[in-house]
Amino acid sequence: MAQRVSIIIPTYNRIQTLRKVIDSYLAQACLHELIFVIDGSDDGTREYLEGLARLNPVIRIASHGRNLGVSVSRNDGIELATGDCILFGEDDLRLGKDYTSTLLACMERSGADIIGGRIVYNRVGETDEETLQRCNGYDRPLINYWIMSGYYAKRLPGDVEMPFLHAIALAKADVCKRIRFDPAFFAREDTDFYLRAVTAGYRVVYCPHTTCIHLPRDSGRGGGWRVGLLHYQILATKNNNMLVDRHFNVLKKWGMKGNRATFKLLHLINRVRIVYLYFRHSTKH
């Protein structure tokens, strides 16, 4: 019998990007329900989704009166989900048309409990084909073992067992309902989720045979977006320190280089590099 898939998408004031990506979710095979958790949005998202729900009975809507964060939103979606598997989506990301069906097949083949495909990031002005060509030209390791960060656009001949993935993963519903997301994390919450799943004995797998595409970070958002980027990097650094303290032993088991202090320092340097590259790119456009 075909697996029923519940897709959960937290959303916060991103109606413009949501309009661009929602059809890619509705087109997925084995879609049982598409659950949106409106996390305090005040930009018309509720009215837009309620209108769609009248035409698409698979759409379900939950909401928060204020912004509570992605971990709480995903947990609320997990609580509502009635499918056999749960796919975590985002409101600024498109799924490849075969994303869910390919992951389901890979899950059965590999014995995975949680599985994710490739993810690539559009740049402003790029077509999807141009983005894929650019990412296919990079030769990077799947995991950077110094900062335990993944390059999930990597092409590989087969599935690979991993300690963690990016956020757009398919998981067995019973695993999600047992593990859930820790609201203490406002960044790297997905990495914490995967590492706790691995510690509990579940199998996490990277499937390079299907792709999802993240929309470009819009430079037109101006100063507010830049402040948001800086704020996120600060949170990510704080949460990374929590992550390594909580999961140090399992990270070492999976090949992490150095000690806790080295890991934290290198991660901080990487975050500073990300901010520098973003601002340098912004000044050129």
Entry keywords:
Spore Coat Polysaccharide Biosynthesis Protein SpsA, Chain A; single chain; 2 domains; alpha/beta; 285 residues
Account of the protein in words:
45% of the residues lie in helices and 21% in strands. The protein is built from nine helices and eleven strands. The strands form two sheets. Strands 1, 2, 3, 4, 5, 6, 9, 10 and 11 form a nine-stranded mixed β-sheet that branches. Strands 7-8 form a two-stranded antiparallel ribbon. Helix 1 (15-26) links the parallel strand 1 (5-11) and strand 2. Helix 7 runs parallel beside helix 8 and helix 8 (222-253) packs antiparallel against helix 9. The longest helix has 32 residues, at 222-253.
**Cα-to-Cα separation, first versus last residue:** 51 Å
Main structural class: alpha/beta
Poorly predicted runs of 5 or more residues: 219-227
Q: How many DSSP helices?
A: 9
CATH topology of the largest domain: Spore Coat Polysaccharide Biosynthesis Protein SpsA, Chain A
Indicate how many domains the architecture comprises.
2
Beta percentage is: 15-25%
- Shape summary: globular
CATH architecture of the largest domain: Alpha-Beta Complex
Tell me roughly what share of residues is in helical segments: 40-55%
Main beta-sheet annotation: 9 strands, mixed
